[in-house]
Amino acid sequence: MVRSLRFSLFSFAAAMMMGLLAGSGVGTVSAQDSTPMSGSMGDCVTALGVGADGDSCVNVVHASPDAPAVDVYLDGTKALEGLGFGGASGWVAVPAGDHQVQVVPAGEDASSAVIDAPVTLEGGAGYLVAATGLVASIAPQIYQVDLSDLAADSARVRVIHTSPDAPAVDIAVKGGDVLIPSLAFPNASDYLVVPAASYDLEVRPTGAMDVALALDGVALEAGMVYDVFAIGTVADASLTVLVVPSTTPATVATPMA
């Protein structure tokens, strides 16, 4: 029933963030570059090069800071094993339509699900499915990814607040203007479309100039979409970022058996 259950386990945690710090030249960006999602958000099969026409695309993110590694079941079949906090599964194709998603502690069966939720996936749409919150109140959040075409010299980026004990935050240019105001758990900002370049940014408590998290030298490549998750907790000083990149568009889609 499900065409593609062969999830490859990729880690896009701190190592991925470090891989983005190799840009050259620090660019500038203004709040006027904010572009709310509207109209077509692109075709994920074409953009990501997975699946077949009419499929949906899914990337599972573990953003629950005190939850153990998890397995994910799709429609009663184990689709993903051993995904740890701060990791993402990588993009896979799933037939469009209604599905049941269950998240269980690694090695246990579906009857032990800590998340058991129905999801409806539209054909051609790409979704980040995140396990968020502390394990006592863990919940799924679904964020659609804008994979529509970009200008040759542009990138698209948004920030997703998944730190359960952090207050609402502003995302700002280092020492300067606020780009994304008052982003609260577990919400996602609108996407910003910006020139491909390297940026110095910072996360601040809403309305303050104190820096909760510095993001220096963040390199955004042309034609890429970046979803930047704020993960971890303030209480144990583990607040950090998880960057999930996507292409838009890829070259030729490769159907999966």
Task: Please give a structural write-up.
With 257 residues, the chain is mostly beta strands. It has one domain. It is built from two helices and 17 strands. It has helices spanning 14-19, 44-48, and strands spanning 34-35, 55-63, 70-74, 77-83, 92-95, 97-105, 115-121, 126-132, 139-145, 154-161, 169-173, 178-183, 191-195, 197-205, 213-220, 224-231, 240-247. It has a five-stranded mixed beta sheet with strand order 1-13-10-16-17. The protein is flat and about 50 Å long. The two termini are 12 Å apart. Mean pLDDT is 84; it is low at 1-39 and 251-257.
Number of helices: 2
Q: Main sheet, how many strands, which sense, barrel?
A: 5 strands, mixed
Q: What shape does the CA trace take?
A: flat
Query: Mean pLDDT, nearest integer?
Result: 84
Describe this structure in a few short sentences:
With 257 residues, the protein is mainly beta.
Keywords:
disordered N terminus, about 260 residues, mainly beta, 17 strands
